[in-house]
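Entry type: protein chain
Record version: 2
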Amino acid sequence: MLVRIGHALLIAALVVALGGHWAVLQTVAWTNMLVANLRTSSLEAAVIKTFDGNHPCSLCKEISAGKKSEKRTDFPSLAKKLEFVSAQPVFVFNPPTTFYLVPEREASAFPLSHEPPVPPPRRFTT
């Protein structure tokens, strides 16, 4: 249960961080405008009046003002501040001082097989 709440809070934080709250508010504003326009006109005229941009409601105006006043923090580009040295790296190969061959192992499975112990081991229960 706690994991689900954490996931929901993470999703909500991402939506707000990416500006999705403005999209949700704009959807609510358009829905309210469409309902209000449907009371006085046909569906086609209500849709046109809602989405033409010439008849914004008070919530649309507030959303527009909120988007403009929202502070954008532009992070400075780190690529401009990094300095790379153009010196060529020197590769030095250091061979090992001692060398020996590892003996080959037997590839057959027979040395690994063995019969189970007789009698079978007893399980200790306490």
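Comment: The chain has a mean pLDDT of 80.
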